[in-house]
Amino acid sequence: MQQQDLYAVYGASGCGRGIMPLARQQLALAGVPASRLVFVDDAPGPALVNGQRLMTYAQFLSEPAAGRYAVLAIASGTVREALAQRCAADGVQPWTVTAGNVVQMDDVQLGAGAVLSPFVTLTSNVRIGKHFHANLYSYVEHDCVVGDFVTFAPRVHCNGNVVVEDHAYIGTGAILKQGQPGKPLVIGRGAVVGMGAVVTKSVAPGATVVGNPARLMG
After folding, report:
1. Which of 5, 79, 171, 205 has its Cβ near the most Cβ atoms within 10 Å?
2. Is the pLDDT of residue 44 over 90?
3. 199 plus 180 within the same structural domain
């Protein structure tokens, strides 16, 4: 019997359990049975989580399969990068999971391993790097550049001409003011934008900003 590909949602916590139904639906539309979809987690747990098998990473690698694919359901961009490197070393391919009602408009370039949750919109002339997470109701407007391992919590409003550098975390309900052509608003590498913050000017790498208008925390 010919072996089939095996797909994983890596992480069985709240993030992973929110992604699993999207992954299951996406595979069903492609004719892949739900039995070829599993959770992978480094922590011990029950045999089944929300109806899907739970495996350790070692079990995932040892399961007979033609190929292995994983979407990384971890909110921390730093942890996602470490897991991405681990998977790449073991021949596990990145997998993008996209809700059925996501809107992508013109000239959108999306890196491998993304998660686009329900009601996400990517408009026009957008560049997004690897392993991007866009949670419920988030949007990325025109002429934005988003780096690798960036996380948008629910309802992030990323307006036009914004640059979000690698590993930035944008909290729930945050608003990033529109920049200007040739003079974008920049969220620096590893910066954190707090929940509900209204960002009206660029944020330095590694900084944490909160409030309306957003100010440096502390």
Report:
1. 171
2. no
3. yes
